[in-house]
Design a protein that fits this description.
CATH topology of the largest domain: Immunoglobulin-like
Number of domains: 3
Largest sheet: 5 strands, mixed
Distance between the termini: 147 Å
Strand content: 35-45%
Shape: elongated
Mean pLDDT: 90
Low-confidence stretches: 1-19
Oligomer: single chain
Structural class: mainly beta
Number of helices: 1
CATH class of the largest domain: Mainly Beta
């Protein structure tokens, strides 16, 4: 009874005061378990208990000192960072201010809640080698049997300038179906990128079909532990190789008039083929590679009343002299072209003014002019 009376007296007089105690907040940082050099990291902040707040971030790049008074101990650079957001994204440095590969990060947070109470946190994060990247880029004048195909490999690795990479084994190659791969010497890059390396291989397919070149990039960690080291995912490039096609007359001079009409010639006139399109033997020749050649030409004339054509030259041009004939004569001037896989003679009848070996009649191997001597 006395206790109850006493409690009632306190309530009635207003002397009993209750107010919730404000607990000190704790700041937490959410980070990956480890990060790689030159990768992007998204750090997230949180209060416990949950409260609104403002945030100031800092990140220090650290490495084990190799000399000086701190040799053997972890030494960190000055902090970098900023921002007032709950999330903070930053790129992991590759080296410290002293040029050593970063092995650890110290991620720091100062958080102030909506009542002005300050909390801080600091988390260490191990830093590992970045996984190398690889891009394959095929380059070829033509995807034809017997023609070389170069495959350029762009190898990227943030540790490349600072670790001793074994360049010959930096990329492992394979081809299906199997074809020999030869090294290609490349000129130095005009704008060198210390974190990238460009290598090239050359293959020469011998049969038509689809070819797949696969590359895998490995970094310097694979020299000491090839079973557990940094390798890129396999990267592939595919191309389809076709059989060599016949050469095609692409340009000729003078123009050929419609059927039944003639080219009037009263003075020495040049007949020529300035351009032949062909996979391996074009004209003019466009490559100094031994796999490529040039077109073979065969010129001839059929004088009036002659039973056979007379050879006239083997270059891409001849000069027709009307002075060797009588005005009014009709003379046929003809050119035929051949490449290494489609040699003479052409399968068309001799009386045909043009000839196309394939069903593509836009690709001619013979052209004939009917010349009227003036």
């Amino acid at each position: 009874m006395r206790a109850a009376a006493a409690l009632a007296a306190v309530v009635l007089t207003g002397c009993f005061y209750l107010d919730p105690i404000v607990s000190r907040p704790f700041a937490f940082i959410t980070l990956p378990d480890h990060v790689a050099r030159d990768s992007m990291v998204n750090a997230a902040a949180a209060f416990d208990p949950a409260r609104d707040g403002t945030y100031v971030w800092g990140v220090a790049a650290c490495a084990i000192a190799t000399q000086g008074a701190n040799q053997g101990h972890v030494v960190c650079d000055d902090d970098f960072g900023a921002g007032a957001d709950q999330q903070f994204m930053f790129r992991v440095p590759t080296v410290t201010q002293h040029g050593q590969l970063v092995t650890e990060l110290r991620v720091k947070l100062q958080a102030r809640d909506d009542r002005g109470v300050l909390a801080s946190a600091e988390d260490p994060v191990p830093v590992t080698d970045g996984v190398p990247t690889l891009a394959l880029m095929p380059h070829a004048r033509t995807l034809t049997v017997g023609a070389p195909i170069d495959v350029f490999a762009d190898y990227g690795d943030p540790e490349l300038p600072y670790e001793n990479l074994d360049i010959p084994t930096a990329i492992s190659w394979s081809v299906a179906p199997s074809v020999p791969l030869d090294d290609v010497a490349l000129p130095p890059p005009a704008i060198p990128n210390p974190t990238h390396l460009v290598l090239a291989k050359r293959l020469i397919p011998q049969v038509p079909g689809s070819y797949v070149v696969t590359g895998v990039a490995s970094d310097a960690t694979c020299r000491t532990d090839p079973t557990s080291c940094n390798r890129s995912a396999p990267v592939q490039t595919t191309f389809v190789v076709a059989a060599d096609q016949p050469p095609c007359l692409a340009q000729w001079q003078p123009a050929v008039p419609p059927t039944g009409q003639t080219v009037p010639v009263g003075e020495p006139t040049v007949f020529q083929v300035p351009l032949v399109a062909d996979d391996l033997d074009p004209f003019p020749a466009v490559s100094d590679l031994p796999e490529f050649g040039t077109t073979t030409f065969a010129w001839s004339i059929l004088p009036p009343g002659a039973a056979q054509r007379q050879p006239l030259g083997s270059g891409n041009r001849i000069v027709f002299d009307p002075g060797a004939f009588t005005p009014g004569d009709i003379v046929e001037v003809r050119v035929e072209i051949f490449d290494r896989h489609h040699p003479a003679p052409l399968p068309c009848a001799d009386g045909a003014a043009t000839c196309a070996i394939t069903t593509d009649t836009s690709c001619l191997q013979r052209q004939t002019w009917r010349v009227a001597v003036r």
